[in-house]
Design goal:
alpha+beta; Heat Shock Protein 90; 2 domains; five-stranded mixed sheet; two-stranded antiparallel sheet; 7 strands
Length: 341
């Protein structure tokens, strides 16, 4: 139920409960006021209940406004004066339309136990209602702001991925046009399929895992043109549910990082191995590549690769909170990166 609807429902229930209490206290077998008649008691009950309930809500809202704009002491004074004013008005109404019918003269202060009991409880509950719903309102606003911030951050992180990938791929095509024009044409076709995926599928928060597999397959073929026979690129995809939802382009920075830092020596095996496995609610992605051992950035590359690695952590945190694992390591000139969620 929306908060506004819950508020009005609570106010209505609050009013009805105290009206019933006022009515029953003024119209029962032992009451001195029963002879006034049921219509008189109902109208009087409606009026005094309205005064107590909505008067409490009015002064609670007024004190809240003062608390925000000025000071807590002044807000407390307003609440106190509001209570005294309501109790005084209540005593005058009950004297005029109830007690004066059988007493010629009303003796005694308005500040007495009967009036205090009649006004204090609804006044206190009215203030509590305002406090609770103000807290819920602020909490909802904070959650909405947090959600909007999360969406904005995710959109920003995705936007960073596209130019990063495009820059690298254009460099590959430029290099390939000079060496293999036919291969460059094939590469452009695959690039168009990849860009179509990025433009029309990646606006969603999640995509089927099979679409991401297809994208990675095209990416490996594109990068394979550039690396040639010096680097062996292998993939192993094992999914239980091809429609299982995962964040789009999440693994792209790791693949690009491997392509950038993979070794290309003549006297050793140069390779990139990609593993993606999905079972039930668990997804595991791992990429392993050989390096020359001289230089690799695990945290922040000065220009491009660090942006991608940092984005992975941010996106995982925004989407899964702490329910993920992301690790990177360099052991014996072999680079390992793994994501589980």
């Amino acid at each position: 139920m929306p908060l506004r609807s819950s508020y009005f429902f609570t106010i209505a229930f609050y009013y009805i409960v105290f009206f019933i209490i006022d009515f029953l206290s003024g119209y029962n077998a032992e009451s001195d006021h029963q002879w006034l008649g049921i219509n008189h008691i109902i109208i009087l009950g409606l009026a005094t209940t309205f005064l107590k309930c909505f008067g409490a809500l009015f002064f609670a809202k007024a004190s809240k406004y003062i608390l925000i704009k000025k000071s807590s002491i002044l807000a407390f004074i307003v609440l106190s004066l509001g209570f005294i004013l309501i109790m005084y008005t209540y005593s005058q109404i009950t004297w005029e339309y109830r007690i004066s019918y059988f007493l010629e003269e009303y003796k005694g202060p308005f500040l007495n136990a009967a009036n205090l009991q009649a006004v204090l409880i609804p006044y206190f509950i009215g203030i509590c209602i305002e406090i609770v719903f103000e807290y819920l309102k602020q909490n909802n606003e904070q959650q909405s702001l947090k959600l909007e911030k999360t969406k904005a951050e995710l959109s920003f992180l995705k936007a960073q991925i596209s130019p990063h990938f495009l820059f690298n791929t254009i460099n590959t095509i430029f290099w390939l046009i000079l060496k293999d024009p036919q291969g460059a044409q094939e590469l452009l076709l695959k690039l168009s399929e990849m860009l179509r995926y990025q433009l029309y599928e990646c606006d969603h928060d999640f995509v089927p895992i099979q679409k991401e597999i297809d994208y990675l397959t095209h990416l490996c073929k594109v990068q394979g043109y550039r690396k040639g026979k010096k680097v062996k690129i292998t993939t192993e995809f094992d999914t239980e549910d091809t429609a299982y939802p995962i964040p789009p382009l999440l693994f792209l920075p790791l693949v690009e990082n491997a392509m950038k830092y993979v070794s290309q020596k003549d006297d050793q095996e140069n390779y990139i191995s990609i593993f993606l496995k999905q079972r039930s609610n668990l997804v595991s992605f791992e990429i392993v590549n050989s390096t020359d051992g001289s230089h690799i950035e695990l945290e922040e590359d000065k220009k491009y690769s660090g942006i991608g690695l940092s984005n992975i952590k941010k996106r995982l945190t925004l989407i899964y909170g702490n329910n993920y694992k992301f690790s990177t390591s360099l052991i014996n000139s072999v680079y390992y990166a793994k994501i589980e969620f």
